[in-house]
């Protein structure tokens, strides 16, 4: 990790345990004329417009007796692809471990003195409209540090992340419990109430990970939703800026375009069993299992990693033919369109509704019964009444009377005998499906093609 001395503006590299415990880190939006590490080597850094921000940052933190600082524009030698890869894969940890993190909102001018009075509504409106909240890279810079100090254009103090948490939550769509996790308040003997995600939520228990780690952990889909409306200058950075948020590592391949987001999903699937990675929406009817772009998760903020009905599905994997997806509970719809076969499967993730939390279901279609595609419904769909069937179990074990459904007197799980909606052909004993992983872009597509960047069809 290369740090800059806040007094001399000289650089020094530190590794592992030698990294200073007390260093400050800057979070900001890049300008068009930043001072790079190469400019400092050549001694021409002062000719760059971005040098003033670096100098102001160093002067500001040195006033608090902080000797070392880190600024992404000048502390990374971007001529070295190896160093750039290491820095981006380590960046979340660097922000998390920083003793001071300062978010410089260069488009906010405040006349308030927060040491005397609260921020005026005019200043709060400026903060919420700041471009800092629209950039991809600043998301991890908001989430990783425990404390973030917000500073205006003239380096006047605006408040901390905790002070502004309600306004930040409003503008980013991130629930306050994820911005400020408090281990002291999350484990108690009281019954867990509504999650406030939807007006009709009836309450649900916390995730197992919460009980184990003492932190609220959002689902994969929820985390994806946070970046859905953000932007980066380079297309690939929309994936790279999320590495730390999902705790994955992968090499950087600038020039691969939107394939970077596909690779990110592959890496997430390798180490996570959270089915919410498949809980997204699209304006194209027939798709693969993986999302095309983060904007597909724009409506996934309230998806929960928890689900009331566990599928006990085996691990799934990406192959050269698609996503090999073991299936357990499924629902058969006898309708046929030509030779198309349909099947509905349950995911191990849920969403809130009038009946509490319900599993999310996917609808899959196939022409030949071997290769399957995802049939989009333009919305995330909770499980219906079924009946749902699990072929691996005996007919007696298939009936689960204690499960709550939208019609309490009707079992949503069925047996193979005597029910016309449960298949008796090849679909009855399917234990795995090979589902196309990537999106279809044929010359004559079967549905509307949606461009997530321009948001046009």
Reconstruct the topology from this structure.
Blueprint: E1 2-5, E2 11-13, E3 23-27, H1 37-42, H2 51-62, E4 68-70, H3 81-97, E5 100-104, H4 121-128, H5 137-143, E6 149-151, E7 157-160, H6 165-172, H7 176-179, H8 208-213, H9 220-227, H10 237-240, H11 259-271, E8 286-287, E9 317-319, E10 322-326, E11 330-331, E12 341-353, E13 356-366, E14 371-375, H12 395-398, E15 432-435
Parallel strand pairs: 3-4, 3-5, 5-6, 14-15
Antiparallel strand pairs: 1-2, 1-4, 6-7, 8-14, 9-10, 10-15, 11-12, 12-13, 13-14
Q: Could you explain the architecture of this structure?
A:
It is a single chain. Helices cover 21% and strands 16% of the residues. With 457 residues, it is of the alpha+beta class. The strands form 2 sheets. Strands 8, 9, 10, 11, 12, 13, 14 and 15 form an 8-stranded mixed β-sheet that branches. Strand 14, helix 12 and strand 15 form a beta-alpha-beta unit. The model is unreliable at 183-194, 208-214, 393-421 and 442-457 (pLDDT under 50).
Number of strands: 15
The largest sheet is:
8 strands, mixed
Rounded radius of gyration (Å): 25 Å
Number of helices: 12
Let me know the average pLDDT.
81
Inertia-based shape: elongated
Proportion of β residues?
15-25%
How much helical structure, as a percent, in the residues? 10-25%
Order of helices and strands: EEEHHEHEHHEEHHHHHHEEEEEEEHE
Oligomer state equals single chain
Instruction: Please state the structural category.
Output: alpha+beta
Contiguous runs where pLDDT drops below 50 for at least 5 residues: 183-194, 208-214, 393-421, 442-457
End-to-end gap: 44 Å
